[in-house]
Structure to design on (120 residues):
């Protein structure tokens, strides 16, 4: 599986943005996750969705971000609302076979990232 993110942009605080992660194959047995990283800090998982469709979210984004899957086109989305300047980061899509885990070290398949900047 290869991953290509898109949709990053500059938005104002309170705005919304949807990121896409296009895969080149079937991801049905994979955990799909979104991470973000600020320079100098570790990658933080913001959302994940396992093979059964169960999703989980980081505390900082609960209620604002939603991970969804388009199983026909093999695309994973991250819908982001009520964006805050603290959401500014490079966002990465990641995948691993099997269960979802929180730490980035469990994921072996990564996209190249897409930049989200929240600023007035």
């Amino acid at each position: 599986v290869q991953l290509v993110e898109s949709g990053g942009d500059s938005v104002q605080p309170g705005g919304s943005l949807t990121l896409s992660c296009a895969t080149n194959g079937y991801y049905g047995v994979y955990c799909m996750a979104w991470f973000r990283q600020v320079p100098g800090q570790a990658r933080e998982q913001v959302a994940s969705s396992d093979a059964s469709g169960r999703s989980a979210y980081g505390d900082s984004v609960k209620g604002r971000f939603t991970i969804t899957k388009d199983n026909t086109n093999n695309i994973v989305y991250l819908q982001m609302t009520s964006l805050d300047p603290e959401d500014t980061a490079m966002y990465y899509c990641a995948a691993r076979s099997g269960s979802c885990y929180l730490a980035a070290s469990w994921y072996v398949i990564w996209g190249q990232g897409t930049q989200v900047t929240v600023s007035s």
